[in-house]
Amino acid sequence: MDRRSWLWRKKSSERSPGETESSVGSISSHSERFSDDQIYLNQNLQSLEIGSKSDPRQSEHNNDVKTLSEKLEEALANINAKEELVKQHVKVAEEAVSGWEKAESEASSLRQQVEILNVRNSTLEDRILQLDGALKECLRQLRQTREEKDQIAHEALEKKNSETESSSTSIDIDLLHKLEMSEKENSDLKLELSSMAEELEIRLIEMELSNQAAEQASRQLLDSVKKVAKLEAECRKLKFSLEKGNDHQTKDRKNSSINERNQMESFVEIDLMDDFLEMERLVGLPESNEVGERLKKEREDELNASRKRLEEAESNLSELENELKTSRERLEEAESKSVRLENELNASRNRLEESESKLGKLENELKPSRKRLKEAESKLAEYENELKASRQRFEEAESKLHDRENELKVSRNRLKETEFKLDECEKELRASIYRLKEAETELEDRENELKPSRKRLERAESKLAELENELKTSRYRLEESETKLVVNENELKKGEFKLAEVENELNASRKRIEEAESKLAKHQNELKLSRYQLDEAESKLAETESRLEMAESRLEAIYIKKEEAESRCKALESELESLLINHEKERDLWGKSEAKCRQLENKVTRLQHELHGRKSVNRPEELRFRRAKQDKELAMAGNKFAECQKTIASLTRQLKTLATIDDFLVN
Fold it and tell me: Which residues form a coiled coil (predicted)?
């Protein structure tokens, strides 16, 4: 509608100035001609009046001329009135033309605005296409990054699993080897302990026997000393009886008796041979030589046997002392080994406590990371919702733009129709102007011919009436076209207002998108700081939207990894709980085994004391039975100790796996 009005206005503006000038000029020339004719007629009337005075015959003819002149005056008055009406119509037409020109200028401005809006719409469409392409590229990059991240995570998990399996197998092999070695060492130690216990028992028995032999020898020595004292008393009696003998012999006897007494007082138990020599001397007397020789031989034999027994007892005592020293050293070594094992157990317990504390710390560290993950997930959900809302707004804006385009197409069609109608009106106006020109020519002919002027005036009046009707119709059409133009202008204003609303919505959506992009950029920068080492290739991306989507994919992958790690941690926690329960049970068993070992040691000490105290014949059999019991108990304790070592090794292996998992989680 507007385009047609604008086109008609252009055509009317192009054509109206000359036509209006020609019409105005023709009307003005026509009015001048009528005024000249009127003056000429007045002059003719005056001349006729003068002629009538001179010529009375022409009075009738003058009367007719007067009547005709009156009629002509009336006709001229009517023509002047109609000319005034024509002038008014011309003014109205000029006003209409000026209105059309204004409408054309407004239509041209509206066209320019519509062109600007079309350009904006085209730019917006290009922008929307670019954004759609960017979104598609971002989605493609997201998919690629997700796939890459999944592949990397899968490969990393496979590597970690293979490494853990290989490490676990190597650790299991090492632990099995160590367990075998420890079992062998335990068996060797058990054999050594059993052999040492047997040797100790044998040596204790030998010590007891040697002690018994020494006691018997000491008793025999005491008996021999008593006998020697009796013999000395008898010898003294014999000496007193034989004092009457030789003086030389008596002196020798006195000296020898004094020396013997001194020696007996100082060395009764040590210098028995001197007493026996004195006895030999006494026996060597002539009165009792034979008896002295016999006693001498007997005493020498007894002394030699007692000396041999004493030497054997001393050698046995030295051997027993050496054996006791070696047994004590072995016991000290066994005690040191037990202390080492206890230290290792304490170290393993400390490691377990440290691992438990580390697990607690890791759990405490995982809590804020889980909170951060939840916050990041909520933020990502908000960003996704905002993106969805912006996309919906884009779609709504596109639909509105399509609607506006359809409305513009309809308005263009209407403008074309109005332009066509205005062209028809222009053609009718041209025809009316042409008719006015014909009327002017006819009026000129009437001026020349007065007689047929009535008919021509009537024709002119009829033509003027027709022209008036045509002008009325043209006015009506102009009013209709003006109303249509007003309606079209209102529709255009509505369209412009709607386009402005759409532009405002698009600007608001752009601002929101920019805000979302800025927020996403901030979030991405925060994520970059924590994951820069893993995502060096991804940091090269320049666009913030792609970075956001990469961050979302990373967050999803990390969330999956965290869930897997949490599940593993839960499984490991359950395993740790079970292991701790088993460890507590093993501690109880270890305490029981230690108590049993102490009981066995106490029993061994008691048996040793009993072995020292007892001197029965059935003692070796009892010792063998007790040794067998002790061996069984020691074997049970060694088995329990091996089981404890196995559990400790398994706990250390699991703690190592937990430490590797903790390092992986920290990374």
Answer: 58-234
In single-letter form, the type of residue at position 170 comes to S
* Amino acid in position 517: E
Q: Which residues contact 222 (CB under 8 A, 6 or more apart)?
A: none
Q: Is 244 helix (H, G, I), strand (E, B) or coil?
A: coil
Q: Which segments of 243-288 does DSSP mark as H helices, in order? A: 247-266, 272-283
282 in Cβ contact with 275 (< 8 Å) = no
Q: Say if pTM beats, i.e. exceeds, 0.90.
A: no
| Three-class secondary structure assignment of 75-125 | HHHHHHHHHHHHHHHHHHHHHHHHHHHHHHHHHHHHHHHHHHHHHHHHHHH
Q: Check residue 252 and give its pLDDT.
A: 54
Least confident of 62-71, 278-287, 389-398, 496-505: 278-287
User: How high is the mean pLDDT of the chain?
Assistant: 65
Q: Which residue has the tokens 């592949």?
A: 151
Contact partners, residue 345, CB within 8 Å, separation at least 6: 590, 644, 648
b/e map 351-377, b = 16+ CB within 10 Å: ebeebeeebeebeeebeeeeeebeebe
Distance, CA of 91 to CA of 63 (rounded, Å)? 41
Count of residues for the chain?
667
What beta strand segments (E) does 141-280 contain?
none
| Residue 502 near residue 397 (C-beta atoms within 8 A) | yes
Q: By three-state DSSP, how is residue 184 classified? A: helix
Classify residue 291 as exposed, middle or buried by CB count within 10 Å of its CB (0-12, 13-18, 19+). exposed
| Spatial distance between the Cα atoms of 268 and 115, rounded to a whole number of angstroms | 151
Give the DSSP letter string of 345-403: HHHHHHHHHHHHHHHHHHHHHHHHHHHHHHHHHHHHHHHHHHHHHHHHHHHHHHHHHHH
Which amino acid makes up residue 385? N
Q: Which amino acid is at 421?
A: K
Q: For residues 600-635, b (16+ Cβ closer than 10 Å) or e, as one string?
A: beebbeebeeebeeeeeeebeeebeebbeebbebbe
Helix (H, G, I), strand (E, B) or coil at 583: helix
Mean pLDDT of 612-634: 61
Given a contact cutoff of 8 angstroms between Cβ atoms, the answer to whether 450 and 72 are in contact is yes
* Cβ proximity of 288 and 238 under 8 Å: yes
Question: Which long-range contacts does 212-217 make (Cβ < 8 Å, 24+ apart)?
Answer: 212/615, 213/309, 213/312, 213/313, 214/309, 214/310, 214/313, 217/306, 217/309, 217/310, 217/313
Beta-carbon contacts of residue 78 (< 8 Å; ≥ 6 apart): 457, 461
Closest C-alpha among 429, 578, 433, 521 to residue 25? 433
| Cα R_g (the chain), whole angstroms | 73
> Any residues with CB less than 8 A from the CB of 428 and at least 6 apart, and which?
470, 473, 474
Q: Are the C-beta atoms of residues 198 and 326 closer than 8 Å to each other?
A: no
**DSSP element (H, E) containing 505:** helix 453-530
pLDDT single digits (tens) 126-147: 877 777 777 777 678 777 877 8
pLDDT at 91: 80
Residue 42: CB atoms within 10 A of its CB come to 12
More confident residue, 166 or 450: 166
Q: Residue 513: its pLDDT value, please?
A: 64
Q: For residue 539, give the DSSP letter.
A: G
pLDDT cut 70: percent of the chain above it: 34
Averaged pLDDT for residues 260-283: 47
- Residue holding tokens 């961050």? 551
Chain Cα centroid distance, residue 650? 32
pLDDT digits (tens, 9 = 90+) for 507-528: 666 676 677 666 666 666 666 6
Task: Give the closest residue to 660 by CA, choosing from 527, 568, 579, 577.
Answer: 568
Question: H/E element holding 656?
Answer: helix 619-666
